[in-house]
Write a structure and sequence with these properties.
By secondary structure, the protein is of the alpha/beta class. Helices cover 37% and strands 24% of the residues. Helix 2 crosses helix 3.
Length: 262
């Protein structure tokens, strides 16, 4: 198979989204070009932050030194997060009990919650709790907001740890909305912060429906701490379609993939 430059790059991105990594030798053989041509393609894609070159190939672009603080993440892929958050809010029904985690996408979901008369929201996010408090005061919606107790993380603006987990064990929710660090076909759903992922892992087990919020930068990424497999996920909301090779697996696992266009 011999493709033009842009077609090669799209093929490389598709491969890395599917597998999380690629090898120069394999790509050269599949695309019927020289290894040097592939290296040049990888160099261009790295400059546009679509991947990271490593010895012998490339891996999916992710945070190299751990997840940055909440304020820094909040201004990345903003339009995509807004679209995903809006779409996530549309899945909420009157009378639901829901969980919103401490991610930067779930705060967009919180901003879109309006018009409900009976809603219970549990969260470990300080910004989400503060926003929902204002919404209640202004009559944007009616219901209860429960903020979990525990150790505060100034960087992540969240509450987590043993006390938080013990409190969360007392609740069962209809829908858990998780803004995660990575979605990988091989390893499932993951996050960068161990404490945050423990909260997400626990609520996944106590929720009737698990809804993952992940913009395109999270697709194909395996981050530090495992949360759950696709078997426990009901819906994934992203701003792009899944890689073609993921579709049979998603269908097999009964995972609905929703595209929220920015």
């Amino acid at each position: 198979m011999s493709l033009l430059s842009e077609e090669r790059k799209q093929f490389i991105i598709s491969e890395i989204d599917t597998h999380g990594k690629v090898r120069v030798s394999d790509l050269a053989e599949k695309l019927n070009v020289s290894s040097e041509t592939i290296r040049r393609d990888l160099e261009v894609l790295e400059k546009t932050e679509q991947l990271k070159r490593v010895y012998g190939g490339a891996v999916k672009q992710s945070y190299q030194h751990g997840e940055p603080p909440f304020q820094q993440r909040e201004i990345i892929h903003t339009s995509e997060k807004i679209a995903i958050g809006n779409r996530a809010a549309s899945l909420i029904n009157e009378g639901d009990t829901i969980f919103l985690d401490s991610g930067t996408t779930t705060i967009e979901t919180a901003k879109s919650i309006a018009g409900f008369k009976r809603l219970t929201i549990i969260t470990n996010s300080l910004p989400v709790a503060n926003l929902l408090k204002d919404s209640l005061l202004q009559g944007v919606f009616r219901g209860k907001v429960i903020i979990l107790g525990g150790e505060i993380s100034p960087d992540q603006q969240s509450v987590s740890g043993y006390l938080c987990e013990e409190m969360l064990k007392n609740f069962y929710v209809d829908k858990a909305f998780l803004s995660v660090g990575g979605v990988s076909l091989q390893t499932g759903i993951s996050d960068y912060d161990l404490n945050e992922s423990n909260i997400s892992k626990l609520v996944s087990k106590n929720s009737k429906e698990v809804i993952v919020l992940a913009d395109h930068s999270k697709i194909g990424v395996q981050s530090f701490s495992h949360i759950t497999t696709f078997d426990q996920v009901d819906v994934i909301i992203s701003d792009k379609n899944p890689p073609n090779t993921w579709v049979p697996v998603l269908e097999q696992k009964s995972v609905e993939w929703i595209v929220a266009e920015a």
